[in-house]
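[Meeting: bench + compute handoff]

Bench side (C.D.) handed over the final construct sequence. Compute side (W.E.) agreed to return the predicted structure before the next meeting so the bench team could plan truncations. Sequence as handed over:
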Amino acid sequence: MFNRPATEARRFRLAFPLLALASALASPAAFAANPEDGQVSSPEAKIIQSIVDQVIPQYHLKGIIVQVRRNGKDLYLKAAGESMPGVLVTTNMHFRNGSMVFTYISTMLLELIDQHPQTLSLNDKLSKFFPEIPGSSDVTLKNLLNMTSGYQDYVGIPEVFNGINADPLRQWTPEELIEIGVTPERWFNPGENWAYSHTNYLILGRVLEKITGMPLDRAMQKYIFEPMGLRETKSIDTAQIPGPVMHSFTSERRGALQIPADIPFYEESTFWNPSWTTAKGAIQITDINDMSRSMEIVGNGALLSPTSYLEQVSPNLVGFGHPQDGCPHCTENTYARNYGLGVINLGPWITQTKNFAGNGSTVGYLPAARLTIAVVITYTAGAFDEQGNSTEASQPIFVSLANALAPNIFSPH
């Protein structure tokens, strides 16, 4: 994905906003579990439940859905809290897919390379598809996939950053966003550093349309949704989210709107226009079952050749990248946290994280244990400070669950 651009220098995050203006300060959610979820009985489920009970007050959560699977079967699937006042969160609710689409874009491109090895390669230059993009003759498809192209992140450029905060309902076009992202001088020459940038995957979405000869939403259906068996994941380029919906609320525009700290400000963001977030045809909704299933299939390489699978998930960038003046997202990849091709490796866990206008999610798969953990959360007003900033909580919750269920795997070995 995306936490909205409230703080530009947040790394490895996909900033995504959403819609609707409701500034009333909501009361904290009543954290009764959804009655349909049944009882927690197994020892592992009790451990998971104790962590869930702890993180709800710790991170000021309004709602939470957690799914844990082993060998493709549920160990735990429960929801707690409120979606809206008086409406409980349920495990079948839909939410924005966020950065999971980067994983899909990477997977689709690798599928196509496997199918057409004579005509398509990770080393192909972007100029093969879009010679008009500045610097395209120096940038490879792999540079775009692994965030080493040097193109700036359009999300942090004032025209977009300020535009999103000023009007979260605005409709953005891919053409204007690409132009904004590639027009400034690049942060660095291709392959010389690492920096998270939405611009890379917006361009890749357009590349996939050229390769497949079809709109990206249709290509997603053919190469991702159908082979993965996803039933609740859909490409929707508008603010629409089919019901049931996990509503989200945020205070993140407080600073941009210069609202004093002593004035309550907590607005519904569920239906903010997501058009700025990524390529047209790749703006998606999903549910927790599809999110878990997606990462399991990516994590076991079911759709790819062994070579492409290793390209996607191996920690090839460990030790690469460094902080750089003028590049807010430049950083070093470490064993504990490194970027593959459209996935984030947390040690041996293959993961993806989204933080989008008051809705966060992290999903990860541990191949050695065939273990899947997925967390989706929303926040109460208490999660936001006097400037409207908050700490993304889905990933630390994921890590707590992972450490409890598969201990001692985040340390280098």
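W.E. noted at the follow-up: Residues 1-31 have pLDDT under 50 and may be disordered. C.D. will use this when planning the next construct.
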